[in-house]
Amino acid sequence: MPRFPAQFALLAALTLAALAARAESEVTAIRLGPIRFGMSLDEIQAAVPGAGWQTVARSEFTGRAFKIAAADAIDFGGRRMKVEARQHRYDWDVILSARSAEAGPQACEQAGLAMLAALEDGAGALAGATNEGGESVPFGQASTARFSALDENSRPVPRRKLARAKVDRLSLSAQRLAERLEVKAYAAYDDRNADNCVLSVTVLGWREKPPLAQVPFDEAKVVRRLSTGERHRLASRLQLPPDGLVVPLRCEVSRQSGAVLVCHGVEAAATAVDVASVAKRFAGGMAFGMTALDRDDPQPVVIEIPVRIAASDVRPLTFTGPMLPMSEVAFDAAPSAREREIAFPMKALRRGV
Description:
single chain, alpha+beta, three-stranded antiparallel sheet, disordered N terminus
C-alpha cells in the first residue's frame, strides 16, 4: 500500500475543511412570500399579478425600469405589506413595509415578532445585533431579535415592564449577513405618530464590479474640448517645441456623461511634471460621445488619450482698440458685484488694472 507524505494528508484535511466551511456559509434562497430574491423585476410582477405595480425609476438613457413598487401587494407575517424592488447593474434589493395604528407598544412588538418569524421561514436563522444595547428576544425556531424601549423621558424600559410602563418608543430588530447579501428587519413603535407602528424587511444583494473596460481612443468621438482661451492660459506656462507635444494619458471616462473623470500618466511616458499637469487639464476638459456603450452601467471606461499640446495653443494677446482702466468702463448692462469679482479680482480693480 503506497504511503503519502504528511504534507499531502494535511493538504487534504485543509481542503475538506474549506469545502465544509464554504457549504456552511452558502445562503439558501431567500423567499418573501411569493417573491424569491434574485427574480428580475418582470418576474416579480408576474409572481404578484394584479398588485398595481408602478415604475418608480427608469434609466434616462434606455428607459429600462430600475425600481418598481406596489402598495398592499402581499400578505407577510399577518400584515398586508407594500413591496419595493430595485435592480441596478451590480446591486439589487427588495423592501417590504407596512404602517399601522396599534393599541400600544406590546401590539406593535407582537406584529414585529410575527413578521420576523415569517422572515425566518424564508431566510433562515436571524440574530439581533450584538453591538447595541437592549435585550435579546428569542423567536421562531432558532432566531433572536434585539429589543429596546424608552419612556417619555428617554429612559430605558425593560421588556418585562412593557405592559406597565409609559413607552414612548420601541424597536425590535434582527438581521442575517452573508457574503454579498444582507437581510434585515425591524419593528418600530413611536407613540408620537398616528400610525405608531412601522414594520420593515429589507433584503440587499450585490456582486463585485468587474475591472474597467478599455475603449480605444477615437478622435471622431470627442464632442467637447477646452476653450481656446483656457488652452492658451495653460499652455503659455510651457516651453513648447515647434511641433508641440503629445502626452499619453490613461483616463477614466464616465459612461453617462462622456466626461473625463481622472487621468494618470502612461508608465512608458517620461514627462515633466508641469507638462503632465497641463496635459491632464487639457484631457479634463474633454468629453466623448458614449451612445455606443451601455450607459446604464455605472462603471466608467478607460481610454488612453494622446493629449496634444500644440504650439498654436499659445496665442499672443493683441489689442487693436484703446485700453482703459476698469474704473472708466461704462456698461450698457452692468454685471452683478459677484460676477464682476469673479471676472476681475478686487485687487486688480482697486489698482485700476
